[in-house]
Model the fold of this input.
Amino acid sequence: MEAFQSTGSSTREPRESAEHPGGVGGRQRERIIRAATLVFSRKGYDGARVEEIARKADLPKGNVLYYFKTKKDLYRIVIEQVLTLWLDALGDIAVDDSPEEAIRQYVNRKLALSRHYPEASRLFAMEVISGAPVIGAHLRNQLRVWVEEKGRVFRRWQDQGQMARIDPAHAFFMIWAVTQTYADFEAQIQAVTGVQDYDTEIYEGATSEVVDALVRGLGLTNEMSERRAQA
Done:
């Protein structure tokens, strides 16, 4: 907190607005989180420095430490926000929903997140590859509960013959692996395909084919599938 105190009057502004997400405090938090996502994804947790995050956010280091007391606090919040963003992409699925439409929407949203937030995906991958030292408890608790809850809907679809018999957890692993690889392994995909405009040629060109492949692989069936087969 010493750096925060040394920045003078400019440090009082966030304190006055911190409780208002749309105010100066909320905007500064967002800038810090965006900057931290970029720095952590490139340098990793150990290599990242609060000073660099502050420079990327165009804020004094003291402001960063005002909102996030330690680098670890900031890192944990960034990672948890990434995970929340991904999980929210599925929405509130129900047994009465069309399985194919629900999964198509989910895969499309996950691909869109990889497209627009590639640094966030890479950061999450680095954390998990490292053994999830910071968010391990979050994965074992909140994520496990989420998978079990959504998995019960998958089981009902399977009982109704609308989805292939596959452990719901593995169904999610398939979806996550396929959709996140376009962000995490962009350099590899670009090298192999030789595309010039990755965003347009890969995401816009491959999205429908990837979604179709996942839908077929999961054995999802409804009237939409039948109409496509007859076309």
